[in-house]
Amino acid sequence: MAPLLNPYLNFDGNARQAMEYYKEVFGGELNMHTFGEIGGAGEEYADKIMHGMLTTPDGFTLMGSDGPPGMEYASGNNFAVSLSGEEEDTLRRYWEKLSDGGQVSVPLERQMWGDIFGMCTDRFGVPWMVNISTREG
């Protein structure tokens, strides 16, 4: 499967309601995981959405989450462009080019959920997320 490019939206505590709303609008399959399921966040974040993904019948993919602990929500930081897939060499090449001359906020490395993930802002101020799926199956 080729890498996916899609918007990733950040919400101020209402990601569940927003993602359910987008499912009503576009249809499709919605999967959501909370900070509590993944671990590593305090009790006040246990029910907040760490990652949600809506895949629609028309081929749209929309991702979203509540802002993680320590990240202040503000207009302008409520989105990122997400690159994801299984082609590690291709996605690492994109990461190297996007982060060159930009600012890395999360280094591209294995995360607690098992995938290789990183976040950066490119030299033009566009926020990017890269997720290399390493799960079998």
Automatic annotation (TrEMBL):
This is VOC family protein. Transmembrane segments: none annotated. Pfam families: Glyoxalase. It comes from Actinospica acidiphila. Residues 9-130 form the Glyoxalase/fosfomycin resistance/dioxygenase domain. PANTHER family: PROTEIN YJDN, PROTEIN YJDN-RELATED. InterPro entries: Glyas_Bleomycin-R_OHBP_Dase (IPR029068), Glyas_Fos-R_dOase_dom (IPR004360), PhnB-like (IPR028973). It comes from the Bacteria.
